[in-house]
C-alpha cells in the first residue's frame, strides 16, 4: 500500500504562505491602529501633566505607562514591514 500523494507544488505552497502572511499583515495593521490611538492619548496625558506642573514622579509614571505602548507600535510596524518585504510586489497586500 502506498501513501496518498498530497504533494503541493512550490507555487501552491508560496500562494498558501502568502495568504497566511496577508492575514498576519491585516491583523497587525488593525492592532497597530488601536495601539496608535492609545499612544496618542498617552502623549496627550503627558503633555497635560507637564502643562499643569505636576510633580516629576507623576510625569515619570506617565512615561512608564506609555513606553510599552510605543514599543508595541514599533514592533507591529516592523512586523508589517517584514511581511511586505517578504511577499514582494506580486503578493503584497494593499
Brief summary of the model shown:
By secondary structure, the chain is mainly α.
> Which structural class matches the secondary elements?
mainly alpha
Distance between the termini: 47 Å
How many helical stretches? 2
Strand content: under 5%
Q: Give the mean pLDDT.
A: 88
Shape call = rod-shaped
Helical fraction equals over 70%
- List the helices and strands in order: HH
Would you count the extended β strands for me?
0
List the uncertain runs. Answer: none
Sheet bearing the most strands, described?
Answer: none
- How big is the Rg? 21 Å
Give structural notes.
By secondary structure, the chain is mainly alpha-helical. It has a domain at 28-91. 83% of the residues lie in helices and 0% in strands. The termini are far apart. The model has no long low-confidence stretch (mean pLDDT 88).
Task: Name some characteristics of this structure.
mainly alpha, transmembrane helix, membrane, 94 residues, rod-shaped, transmembrane
Helices and strands in order:
Blueprint: H1 10-51, H2 56-91
Helix pairs in contact: 1-2
Amino acid at each position: 500500500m502506498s501513501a496518498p500523494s498530497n504533494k503541493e507544488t512550490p507555487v501552491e505552497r508560496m500562494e498558501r504562505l502568502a495568504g497566511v502572511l496577508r492575514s498576519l499583515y491585516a491583523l497587525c495593521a488593525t492592532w497597530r491602529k488601536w495601539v496608535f490611538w492609545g499612544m496618542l492619548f498617552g502623549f496627550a496625558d503627558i503633555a497635560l501633566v507637564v502643562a499643569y506642573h505636576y510633580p516629576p514622579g507623576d510625569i515619570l509614571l506617565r512615561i512608564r505607562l506609555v513606553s510599552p505602548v510605543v514599543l508595541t507600535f514599533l514592533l507591529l510596524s516592523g512586523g508589517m514591514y517584514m511581511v511586505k518585504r517578504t511577499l514582494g510586489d506580486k503578493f503584497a497586500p494593499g
